Structure formats: C-alpha cells, structure tokens
Amino acid sequence: MTSPQGVRAQGVGASLLRKEDARFLHGRGRYVADITLPGMLEVAFLRSPVAHARLLGMTKPEGAAERVFTFADLDGVGHIRAVSGLPGFRISEQPVLATDKLRHVGEAIAACVAPSRACAEDLVAACVLDYEELPVVSDMLSAGLPGTALVHEHWSQNAFLETTRQDDLSELDAIAAAKVTRRLRTSRQCMAPLEGRGVLVEWDPRLEQLIVTTSTQMPHVSRTGLAEILGLDEGQVRVIAPDVGGGFGYKGILLPEEVVCAHLAIRLGRPVRWIEDRLEHLTANANCREHHYIVTAWADAGGRLLGAEVDATVDAGAYSSYPFGACLEAAQIGSIFPGPYTLPKFSFRTVSACTNKPPILPYRGVARTGVCYALETTMDALARKLGISATAIRLANLVPPEAMPYRNLVGKVFDSGDYPEALRRAMASVDLAGIRARQAAGECVGFGLAVFCEQGAHGTSVYAGWGVPIVPGFEQATARFSPDGVLEIRTGVHSHGQGMETTLAQVAHEVLGVETARVRVVHGDTALTPYSTGTWGSRGAVMAGGAVAEACRLLGERALAIGAALLQAEPGAVELSGGAIRRRDGGAAVTLAEIARTWYRQPQNLARDVDKGGLEVIAGYRPDPDTGTHSYACHAVTLRVDRDTGEVAIEDYLVVEDGGTLLNPMIVDGQVLGGVAQGIGTALYEEMPFDAAGQPLAGSLADYLLPGATEVPDIRLDHMETPSPWTRFGQKGIGESGAIGPPAAIVNAINDALHRFGAEVLDLPATPARVLAALEAAR
Amino acid sequence: MKPAAFTYARPADWPEALALLGGGARAQAGGQSLGPMMNLRLAQPGAVADLRHLPGFAGVTVTGATCRIGAGTTHAAIEDGAVPGLLGRILAGVARRIAYRAVRNRGTIGGSFSHADPAADWVAVLPVFMGEAIAFGPAGERRIPLDGFLRGLFETALAPDELLRAIELPLLPAGTRWGHWKFCRKPGEFSKATACVLAVPGAPVRAVLAALDTPPLVIADAGALLLAAPEAEAARIVAGLGPLEPWRAALARTALQRAGLAAREDA
C-alpha cells in the first residue's frame, strides 16, 4: 500500500506488518516463565483431590513448617469477593487457600515452596490431607433441587443469581404457524492459551513495593484487587504483564495464586514464582462455556418471529471470580438472546447455578457463543418446520439497515450496519444448489448458517448497571515525545495477540504523521501506564484506539504552537501534516522531531508563552453514547458427515464480517481466524467431562482435544466496512467475534445433513459419539 | 508436572540392563509413554534404565525370510523405510500415523509394544503377523508368538526379569494384501477403534481389532472381511466382544469393514 508520495501507508486502514512480530518470530518474547531472579523460590500447590468435602486438617511434611503454608499461615489476607450489584445476588467468599471446605477439584489448599518446582511437588506429595467427603453438586440442572447439598452452606439454594423477564406469550400458540422447542447444551471447556497462568512476585524493601510479574490481561485491575486483599496501598503494588501467550478471558482475573505468592514474597523476603502447568490447567481450571437452554420460539408462516421463551442455566462453578463475577454469562443471556433480530416478545429465566466445579470465567465471546448456538439452531428448527429456507427465515427477521441505530426490545442499541447484506453476500458466495444436488444424490452433506452481532467496547453505562467490581470509564492514554523525537504511547490495556503495538502506532501515525517505526507503544506495567480496566470485551481498538488518537491530537496542538513560534508564524498560519508543522503558504516547515529537541534540549528557543505542559499529554476517551459498538457477521459452513463414524469434515467455511472501519485489516483477519479456530473447538472437539463425583475426566491434551492445524480448514473472509457513528474512526470491537458463530453454523450444517435421516444434534461438542447417538436414536 | 526423584542409569550391555531390572529399575526406551507418566507422577520408579545405548537395540536385519526389528527402532526409522519390501511399506504406513513426528523420532516399536497400551498402534497391528517377540532374560533369549504377547491392559507375556529385545516378522510375498484403519480425529489423539487385515497368499486371512479399552482381538480366519459385504461378519465379531457403548461398537464395526475394504482393494 503506497501513498502518492511513495511512502508506505501506515495509518488507519493499512495492513501494516506487525511491529511485535520480529520479537515473537525470533523467539525473543519474554513470558513469566522466562524470567528468573536470584534466590527465587518455586511454588507448587496442594490441590483438592475431591469436589466437595469438609476439610478437617492437613499435616505438613516433617520439618517443612516454614516451606508449606495453609490459609492459617497467611496473616491478614482476606477472601476474594466479587459481588454483583444485581438484586438477589448471593455472595461467595473465595479463600485464596481452602479453609474449612473444599468446593471443587483442584482448589488450592496449601502452597509448597522449594528451590525447584520438582522439589516443591515433592512437598505437595508428602502433605497428608484429612477431609470428610460431602455429597457433590456436579450437575447444574439438579443443583437447585430441594434436598441437594449446599456448596455454600449459608445460602438457601445453589444459585448465585436468577433473572427473569415476562412478556405475555399466551396468544402465540393460537396465532403461530410454527412453534418449536429445543433443549440444548454446551459443554464445559478449558480456554487453553498456549501460555498458562504464571506469576513471579518480589518484594522491594527499598520502595516497600511488591513487584508482581504476572500473565494477565488487566494489570491495573489485578493491582487494585491485590492491594485490597493484602491490605496494602495501591502504590505498594506494581503489576507487570510481560509478553502474555494468549488471554481469551482466562487471564482476566485476580488469582488466588497471585495473592498467595505475593504474601509469601513479603513473608520470605525472596522472589516467589508459580507457573501453572497443563495438568493444573485442565483439572483445576476447566471453567467456561457450560450452558443449558430450553428454548421455545413461535413464527408466522412467513418466518417472522412472534416471540421466544428461554429457560437458561449456566454452571457458574463454586465461586464468583474477581472482577467479573459469577453472573456475567447467565445474566447476559437475557439481554443478548434476541440476537440480530427484531423479536417482538420475549420471556426468559436465567440461573447462575453454583456447583462443585471451578468458577466460571468469561471466555472469548462470553455468553454469546452459547446464545448464538441456542438462537440460531432454533431458527433453523423453525425454518425446517415451516418448510422455508434458513436464509428466508433470517431475512424475515434481521434488523434492516434503515432501522439503524436500532433499539431492541431489551434495550440493546445497535449502532450501524446492514445485517441482511452480510447474509446475502455469504449466500452469493456459496453453491447451495450444488449442495442440494449432492444431498439428493444421497451424500450426507449439509449447509449451515449463523448470523449474529457482537456488542463490544461497552462502557460505563452498561457496566454500572451490572454492579461488578470494575466499571470502565474514560480510557486514557499518554502520548509524549522523547528528546530524540520518538513518539511514546502509553496505554493501560495489554496486547497479547491483538497486535496493539502495531495498531495503536498506526492510530498515532494517522493523527501525527510520525513513522510507525518511530512510535513506541508501552503497555503492561502499572508503573508506566495510565489506569485501565485492561483488555477484554473487544474494547482495545475502540477504547485504546480512541484514547491514543485523542492524546495525539492534543500533543499535536502543543507541537503546533511550538512549531508556529519557531516558524515565526501565527498558529492559524501553520498546520500539522506528514510529521511536521508547515506553513500553510507552502513555506518553511519544522519536523516534530525538531520541535521535541527544542522543548527538551534547546528551551532557549521556545516562545515565552509556551504551554508549560510540554510534549507529554494524557487524555481520556469514551464513545458517546458508550453502549458499545455492534460488529456483526454471517458464518456459512458446508460440511460432510460420515454416518458410519459420526465424523464431521468441514469442506468450506466462510465468514462475512463487518467490524466497521478496520484499523489494520490484516490483524482483524488474524483475530477472526483465531476466533473461528476456537469456535470450531467448541463446536466439534473441546469438552471437559465431569463425573458424578465432580472429577474432571480429561487429564491431558490427548483427551481434551483442541483443534490444531490439521483440524482447521482454510477459512474464507469477506469484510464489509460500515463505520460506527459513535467511535473515533468508525471502528468496532471485533476481537471475540470469530469465536461466536462456529458452533451454531456447524451444528446447523450437521443437522441440515442429518435431518433427512430423522436425526438432530442438540449438544456441543458434536463429537462422533453424539452424532452416532443422534443417528441411532432416529433408527 | 515434574517427576519424583529417581536415579538414571544407562546400561552398556544387556546383562547390565537385566541387572538393573533385577534391582527394581524401570526400563525406558523412547520415553514417550513413561516420560509423561512420570511427569504426572502416575509412575514413580526409583530408578530408570535407559536402554537406548544397548548394542543391537535399534536397527533392522533381514535373514532369509525373516526380518528382525530391534526393539529400540524408532517409529520414525520405520516410517522412513528401515524395513525393506512389502512388509516395510505396510509398517511404514502404520508408523506414519503414530502421534506426531516429534513423538515418532523418539518412540520405539519395542517400547510401545511392551508398554501394551490397548490404544497403541503397534499393539493393534503386530499380533496380525505370524511373528515372534524375542525376549531376553537371565536364561538368554526366549521366543513368544506375537499373538500371545499381549495378556491384558498394560500386561504382556514378559517376565518381570525380561526385556523385549526384538520383533521378528516374516517377509511378505508378492500378492499380499493389507488393510489398516484407525479412528482418531486428530494426530496425537488415542485411537478409539483400530483394525487391520492381512491376506497372505495361501494362508488364512488374519485380522486384529483393537483400541477398544480391551486387549486386541486377533481373528485367525477373517476371510469374510474381504467379501463385498463384510457388514455381517464385522457385526458378528464386534458382538462377541461383550458390552461396548453403542457409538464405540459402531466405530469397531466400521473399523473392521474399512480395513477389510482397504485390503480387498489393495493391489
């Protein structure tokens, strides 16, 4: 991409190669486990072998009293409390090490400290646990039944929260041309980032400060949480997130392990490190996606939705995690179930069930992946019943472009876009007639669709309503010139795969014209960056992008005033362009680098009335309104089902996506592709089964199947670009989108292939066992 | 996931290896099963005897009509053609589908066979051949028919003081037909059903059905699997296995049918 001047385009919209890739591709990335400090101790945790028990005691190995620590040893450390402001929320107290009860397999009971991890694990093995097993609450659907054991005994039932909405649906049976009811289930998953969690803590006695190097998506939130629970001033906690090998929500949390390691670093006066291993990840932290739905929907003969009723249960596990809490998923189901459609009537009941499983965390797409699955498979079931096409029923219900911005019946506001066009573009690129001909010839092939929209970068007004411990406000960024003219951008979000070291530099280039090679994006350190709630909710491009643009705009104004003085011109007679302040009459110019040198090193040349703020600006940004952008997409899948093995082979995967103005289309492509790969995992592979005793049954990646290069097909991408009217450049949050559509589109395609045989898959993932069982049931 | 403390020994010759075994050491070849088990502390041997440097542990020799494959021969070597002729082509095809190349570079045929994981590839294939396992113990070498080597889940006919030294297989004549099918959805996943069919001219057709959480089933007269419609025979064999989950039984039937079909079409 070159401009008329022959300079490679670097601003908003350029597919600039990623600045950070030189580091990553040459193996120079630096993760927590790459960092060692002199005198460092390693921690291994003794974890609960059972799902529910009364903890009677733990005998430390002989002579290990000062190397093995239980909660009783942690003076002054509080419990983790993530309280939702939603009415009726039941509060869980999560001890950072178990106190009197064990509430899920893998819950940490004691921290064992040794010079090496192997020796620390030896200590774990030598600890003797005494516990009395209790009846296990392993199934979210029976968790609320009378007589069930209570996970938290002071509660009246095993539920964090129940939410409802009631419309009058009583007439629908009489007037609807079709009514369908489906019972659908999604499985519990592990998020499985390449890098697990890890934390290294040292105590700096000079600064009286903890330096917490941790694999997190939200360093500032971790800092606040740590300071609160440890009883320290926030200034005594510095959180550094170095390179982070994938987040996906798994690292948007204050960890019990972080709290324990921080306490031990102070107590022992030595650096303390814990690195999560894959066994811990799989068995102690299977913590996302487990939903159950009973959906009923009514439509008229043309496929227009008349109403829907949803009874949704989410297995939220044993505790409410900090900061997002236990109800983010279930409570959102009510508000996002109407999807991209103009649904006229809607009732729901959602339950955040409390069970003896690891606490739920929001995984890429959060509740949307499950909701999209429930809604879009129901749409197909309605279409089949009505004898109309999957395309027709969607076109009959999608919010039309002329209705934008559109407020739906639960108050979600869609900012912009042409949802039907995304579907039409997908269908124009698919040979549906060919698929139908193959079906007629007896081939077990199928075609499936999923259309959805994703609210991203939602801000203060949305989160204040949910009452969770973090409410994002004005996102801030710092822009400043170094004396050598390098532009430094400081941001409180963290980039761990999103390419923000590149895209934020592009934003800065767009505003100031500084070459991206001379823009340095600093992130991942609370000592260096402005406060931010961090990277989550598809918010980086919109929020940090907007903040960087605003900081650069203000920095440009400062530079312009200095430049005008140097050019002996009135400010109105000069302009900022191409990285320099130029006289509008085409005369002299002074580069931003020269202006920086003047401010720092030749201040004698500054005008007397120069802005004393100099060349460093911190600015805040929030879209107005801040209810969030809505990207949207249509996923279209063609696949084959092997009726003998139940195996599914994806033949074609198409994504038509609208993320508004794309800051860097290549990076957006990467985000969508990675999301789709994870969505394929949800659809076909990933499942952590638990037995009735609450034991996780997949202990290695030979049992917990992740899609790899051989399982992910080539994915075709097509972008629409409808700017959001509410954001700085028209960009929309899109980071999670790819992971939302695949389960719905893939299972719709499977069911399109199977319905001629009377079979229908309802539960995720659609494993060979489930597909064969569906075929068997239809026999 | 760090192993408990253990001592490591690298025996220089077979008697020394046996002595270590007698002292309670666990034998290790490629370490692709034992290593993870030790990391997970599912296995906690006090001592490990690393056999990889024993003379003759790896390598393939052909004498007359018999091919002797050293127990320490890696899957990768077999994949790359260490075994000659038609037999080599067949074994290379099996080796190629074992886990990932990184595993194949270290994992060995003898290590895998004597580990006797019911889902392992060699466990599901070797018993089809009219060959022998060569055990080495205090009394010297002992020959065990391949279809009698596996005694149960993770159980073999090896005595506690014996090591597997080699696998001997008959070279295969022209006209031999072969079919092999296993079900796993991605490389590295354990098979959920494996079958192979071997039709040597002039000999009864043999088949193995394996990876069903039971020891492999050797079918000594599997000719019916080569017929145009093997469904009934496959169903009969699977029904004889005892209770299986329906989907697993369906996979087992499919494995036999598809291995049979592949052998039928093998020219």
Protein model, in words:
The complex is a heterodimer of chains A (779) and B (267). Chain A is of the alpha+beta class and 779 residues long. Helix content of chain A is 26%, strand content 22%. Chain A has a seven-stranded mixed β-sheet. A five-stranded mixed β-sheet of chain A has the order 7-15-14-13-8, covered by helices on one side. The N terminus of chain A is likely disordered. Chain B is an alpha+beta fold. Chain B folds into three domains: 38 residues, no CATH class; 111 residues, Uridine Diphospho-n-acetylenolpyruvylglucosamine Reductase, domain 3, CATH 3.30.465; 89 residues, CO dehydrogenase flavoprotein, C-terminal domain (Enolase-like, domain 1), CATH 3.30.390.50. Chain B is built from nine helices and 14 strands. At the A-B interface, helix 2 and helix 18 of A face helix 9 of B. Chain B: It comes from Humitalea rosea. Chain B: InterPro entries: Diverse_Substr_Oxidored (IPR051312), FAD-bd_PCMH (IPR016166), FAD-bd_PCMH-like_sf (IPR036318), FAD-bd_PCMH_sub1 (IPR016167), FAD-bd_PCMH_sub2 (IPR016169), Mopterin_DH_FAD-bd (IPR002346). Chain B: Keywords: FAD, Flavoprotein, Oxidoreductase. Chain B: Pfam families: FAD_binding_5.
Provide a concise account of the structure shown.
The complex is a heterodimer of chains A (779) and B (267). Helices cover 26% and strands 22% of the residues of chain A. With 779 residues, chain A is an alpha+beta fold.
